[in-house]
Design goal:
By secondary structure, the protein is an alpha+beta fold. The protein has eight helices and four strands; from the N terminus they run H-H-H-E-E-H-H-H-E-E-H-H. The chain has a four-stranded antiparallel beta sheet, with no helix packed on it. The chain is elongated, with a radius of gyration of 37 Å. It is found in: Cell membrane.
């Protein structure tokens, strides 16, 4: 019997209501006030650099591909080591595998939006009530089609979230590459600084040994007391201990470098050589907007946007799902009759499904998605704040280390002159050997501190380049 127009309209009311409410199934909008803003300038640049005061999330953070920034140090061996680490480092390979996994999951999620098609065949033994309840065998084969209509954006939001997860993993891969490159560079520069310090201390040790030989000769001839011999012997032993400590440090740095480039420590070595690595000067006036290319910020932003999309997925779970299905094939009691015209069968259908009671599952899912968004938003804010802190740290370190280097150079010059004067006065008998040893110790200490300040300048330069995302242009 035909339904009246009023009844047909009433039957459509649930679907119409769902369509109206579908507008609420969008993701949560993040207020700009909850996001950190870029400062007008880096404090350590003297406030001379300007940039717009915009929320960090409104600035594109594409995670630009890092250039060959380590080549600014003009060291061919360093270039080889970084390239080897790019190929063989295990942390980079793990990050690359996670990116491949995220891309595969994105493809899997996106596949649910496409037409699903499958072939089926089967054999069933069943009771046929139309023929005196006799048993018969039914052989069937057919093609099944299904397609879920994305009325409320649930599938597209899930696909967007998975794609953003893959983008986050891509940025994390670049972040890992930048981290490994910086660690290789800093470890190599530390090793070269240690080589220079070893050379300085070894030269000093040889000078002390020569002094000890002369002092022992003079002691045997009765020109000096045994106390002078004991003092020089003490300096020789103490300096030998310093040499061994530096040898241990160099070995550990070499082993750490082997792991970074993906080699066994037992098979890896870096020959000692003169430290001739250039120290690049990063120009003043670096804009704060360069931080938008940091891959870790790009990853945090993509994760936040993915969490935002998943809130939309959780909201869409409150609305009905609408699927279209179709099937066609053959069914016959005998295999030989399976593909005859009389055994053909087909069907089309539509299914509208709306959960009514689920024990609070959808509400819990929405609460979980909102909590995930809160965590992602907090992580993004933290990442931005840490990024600016790291840049300020390295800028202040470079400024103070430059001043310290100048002061240390004056100290080295003064202590070197004091050693020369003490040596001359000692040879002429005006001062004791103790005063000469004090002058020599002071000069060695100042020269070692000058090397350490220089090494710290290299470390801070690499740290600043990494904090800026792999460059400053």
């Amino acid at each position: 019997m035909n339904q009246s127009p009023l009844k047909r309209h009433l039957a459509l009311l649930p679907l119409l209501a769902a369509l109206v409410l579908a507008g609420c199934a969008t993701g949560t909008v993040i207020p700009p006030s909850s996001l950190p803003t870029a400062p007008a300038a880096f404090k350590e640049n003297g406030g001379t650099v300007t940039s717009t005061h915009t929320p960090a999330t409104t600035v594109s953070a594409p995670g630009q591909a890092q250039g060959l920034w380590w080549q600014v140090f003009a060291d061919p061996l360093l270039d080889q080591l970084v390239e080897q680490a790019n190929r063989n480092n295990n942390s980079i390979q793990v990050a690359a595998a996670r990116l491949a996994q995220a891309r595969a999951l994105a493809g899997l999620t996106d596949a649910s939006r496409a037409l699903q098609m499958g072939l089926s065949t089967g054999v069933a033994r069943q009771n046929n009530s139309t023929t005196a309840n006799t048993l018969q065998t039914v052989v069937s084969t057919g093609l099944n089609l299904s397609y879920e209509v994305d009325l409320f954006g649930k599938l597209s939001a899930a696909s967007d979230a998975a794609s953003l997860d893959a983008s986050s993993r891509d940025a994390l891969l670049r972040s890992t590459q930048l981290l490994v490159q910086a660690e290789v560079t800093q470890t190599y520069l530390s090793l070269r600084a240690t080589d220079s310090e070893r050379t300085l201390v070894r030269d000093t040790l040889q000078a002390y040994r020569n002094t000890l030989q002369l002092t022992e000769v003079r002691y045997r001839e009765g020109d000096v007391a045994e106390l002078d011999v004991a003092r020089v012997r003490s300096e020789v032993a103490s300096t030998e201990s310093d040499v061994l400590a530096l040898d241990q440090r160099r070995a550990q740095l070499e082993h750490a470098l082997a792991v970074l480039v993906g080699e066994l420590a037992s098979n890896f070595s870096v020959p000692p050589t003169q430290w001739a690595t250039a120290l690049p000067a990063i120009p003043a006036g670096v804009p704060s907007t360069v931080l938008t290319r940091r891959p870790d910020i790009s990853a945090a932003q993509s994760s936040m946007q993915a969490a935002q999309a998943r809130v939309g997925v959780a909201k869409a779970a409150w609305f009905p799902s609408f699927s279209l299905t179709a099937n066609g094939g053959y069914a016959a009691p005998e295999i030989k009759d399976l593909f005859s015209l009389s055994t053909r069968a087909w069907g089309v259908g539509a299914l509208l499904s709306l959960p009514v009671f689920d024990g609070g599952k959808r509400e819990a899912g929405l609460s979980s998605a909102n909590a995930e968004l809160d965590m992602a938003l907090a992580s993004y804010r933290e990442q931005v704040l840490v990024a600016f802190r790291e840049v300020e740290d390295q800028l202040s370190s470079l400024r103070l280390l430059a001043e310290q280097s100048e002061a240390q150079a004056r100290s080295v010059a003064s202590s070197s002159r004091a050693t020369q004067l003490s040596g001359a006065r000692y040879r002429n008998g005006f001062v004791s050997q103790l005063e000469l040893l004090d002058a020599q110790r002071s000069e060695l200490r100042n020269r070692r501190q000058a090397l350490q300040v220089r090494a710290a300048q290299y470390q801070a330069t690499v740290g600043l380049i990494r904090a800026l995302g792999g460059g400053w242009v």
